[in-house]
Structures are given as structure tokens and as C-alpha cells.
Amino acid sequence: xxxxxxxxxxxxxxxxxxxxxxxxxxxxxxxGVGIYYDEDGRIPVLRAxxxxxxxxxxxxxxxxxxxxxxxxxxxxxxxELLFGQDSPLISEGRAATTQTVGGSGALRVAxxxxxxxxxxxxxxxxxxxxxxxxxxxGAVGFEVVDYTYFDAAAHGLDFDGMLxxxxxxxxxxxxxxxxxxxxxxxxxxxPAQWEQVIALLHERGLFPFVDMxxxxxxxxxxxxxxxxxxxxxxxxxxxxxxxxxxKSFSLYGERVGALTVVSDNADESRRVQxxxxxxxRANYSSPSTHGAALxxxxxxxxxxxxxxEAELGQMRTRIHALRKGLVEQLAANGAxxxxxxxxxxxxxxxxxxxxxxVERLREEFGIYAVGTGRICVAALSAKNLDYVAKAVAAVS
Length: 396
Ligand code: PLP
Ligand code: TYF
Known about the structure:
Pfam families: Aminotran_1_2
Keywords: Aminotransferase, Pyridoxal phosphate, Transferase
Oligomer: single chain
Bound molecules: pyridoxal-5'-phosphate, (2S)-2-hydroxy-3-(4-hydroxyphenyl)propanoic acid
Order of helices and strands: HEHHHEHEHEEEHEHEHHEEHHHEHEEH
Number of helices: 15
CATH superfamily: Type I PLP-dependent aspartate aminotransferase-like (Major domain)
Subunit structure: Homodimer.
Protein name: Aminotransferase
CATH class: Alpha Beta
Radius of gyration: 21 Å
């Protein structure tokens, strides 16, 4: 039956980690995959999470099924984290949140929902974007187009290009926007630019789809959700948000994400949510318990929540310091042209390194970056910063 099945090439980013793991050099550095590592090169287990984990182990509760759309404490807390506790959109019953299998699962469920409700629509993603965006929307039959986003020469956002391309889209087109910490470029919109984009989306009848995988990694929980909060306050009545706790709780493998669909009113929201539940029932039936219990346990306990916010703040501050340190070390090694890295936000930087330079970094130095020149700043540490800076300067 499978004799003629073709071999599909692996994910290039995840493949880098395999190559990194197989590299015997002690000085090797993995700047490929988007994971936050601590000073010791480990994925942190947050203290707030550890405490909930202990409580859960002690209580050893029965493992019944969760509701199809997930743990109510988790979805409620998620909604409040996205929109703010006092959001009218929540009290009006317009926002329905579903626990999903990571942010990726939210993207997929939303893609299926939108394909069903807007069958003729196309989706526009930024150029470049996280490669999985194209894959997920393509998989459910969407035609994926892109809009200008990055100015490679200026190492930043091409805002005029973005506006011009969004203006050209047909009404009803779904527009995928990264809320913050743009993957892969690190180039984000300013508050004033968000206002302009949202006004344009409204004026042109475009459908906003916000992906937020890094809430709290740039400036703060509320600050990084600005695009979502501006949308909530705008005249736009329908949009969706795919969000993820993989990074903000350092719970990558627990697959903790959420889909939030905003409807015009509570009745519409109930109908839409019934569709979301049908999609999930026919897919994985219901989500898993543990990761959601960890997040809900932290967010539902004021002391643990404060501790988590502090730990998230430390991760954010450390990323800023690593950006600054990298820029300084690069300049000290004769490569001052990388100062833009400090202006970029989140885990990633489009470094401007060419494919050939990325190859040299891997072959000569055991430093793994994505072929596009994307580096994960959150994988740097005081231990490898100087080594990375010297190597990047050497190939520049
Ligand atoms: N969206 C973006 C922009 C991402 O970078 C990621 C990365 O992990 C995701 C979604 C998926 O998140 P998750 O790992 O929770 O599925
Ligand atoms: O962009 C990244 O590195 C993260 C992790 O198929 C990731 O978002 C990368 C590729 C992939 C799944 C997750």
C-alpha cells in the first residue's frame, strides 16, 4: 500500500536541532530553534509551575476527560490575559476561548473554522512568517498569499509596504498578524502603527487573525497584547486569536495553547463555539489535563501569578540584556553594523547573515542558525556570547 509514498523533507528548524545534537564540538551553540534557555543552557522550569506541580502530585486527582473545549479555569484565565480582566468584550459574552494543543493546535482549529465559515476567503501572511503558518492554512485548503513586512536593507519593518499590500487585498481576506515578537524577524509594529493597521482592516473589511506565541517576552503582558486590546476596542466585530503558553510558561512539551474567537454578540458566540467543538470532537475529542492544570493553577492563585509575572519579567529582561551584550561584543570585535539587533523584539533576530555565512558559522564554529539568517537570541548566555560574537564578526 505504501510502496509509492514519497519522502517528505523534515522541518528545517527542527532538523537543525538534530544536526546540533549530533555535533561533537564542546563549543557548539544552537541558535536555531525558538526556545528560551537559561544561563546554564537549560529550558527553565518556572518556580510557580513547580509549586503547582507539587500540589497536583499531592492531590493525585482522578483523570476524567476535560470538556471538548478545555478546562474552564484555564480558558477563563486565558481570556483575561488576552483582553484584560475588565474587558467589555468578555462581559458581553463575545469572546469564546478554547483550550488547544499548543498555539499550533489553535491555528489549525481556527483555520478549519474559517475555511468552513468563509470558504472563498484567502489568507495573507507576512513575508516572511513562521513557516508553519503557510503549512497549516495550506493543509485545510486556504490559498495563502503574503504581504510585504520586512525591509532587509533597513533590518526593520517595511510599514509602508505592509499598508500598501493590505490595501490591495479583497474584502473578506483573512490577515494573519503576529501580536508581538515577530517570528522570524523580531520586527514589530509600534502602537501608532497598530492603530493604523486596525483602521485599515476595518475600512477594507479584512478579517484579523492574531497569533500571539510570545506574550510577555518583549515589554509585558498587557503591552504585548496591545494589538488584541486595540482590536477589542475597535469597531471590528469578528476576529480570532491563537495564543500559546509554550514560551511564557516554559511548557513547550505540555502543548498549552488557546483559540479565542470574537463574535458580534453572545448568541453568535454560542453558535460559533458549537462549531469549534464539533471540529475538535472529530479530531482529538478533548485536550489533555496536565499542562492546563499547571497554567490554571498559577493564574488562579494571586501569589503564584505574581511569582510567574516576576519570572516572565526576568526572562524578558535577560533577553534585552543578551541583545545589548551581543551588539556590544560584535562592535568590540569589529562588527558595529549589527546595532539593529537591539531594536528587534522577542526571541528572534533576522541577523542579515547570508546562507553562506550561516553555513560557515555551522561548519567552522559549530554555531547553528536558520538558513534565512534567523537567530534565537534567547539561546545566548554569558558563557557563549563572546564566542558567538567573535564567530559572527569573523564571517562578516
Ligand atoms: N506561532 C508562532 C508565531 C510561533 O513562533 C510558534 C512557535 O512555537 C507557534 C505559533 C506555536 O506555538 P506552540 O509551540 O505552542 O504550538
Ligand atoms: O520558530 C521556532 O523555532 C519555534 C519552534 O515546526 C518550532 O516556533 C519551529 C518549527 C516547528 C515547530 C516549532
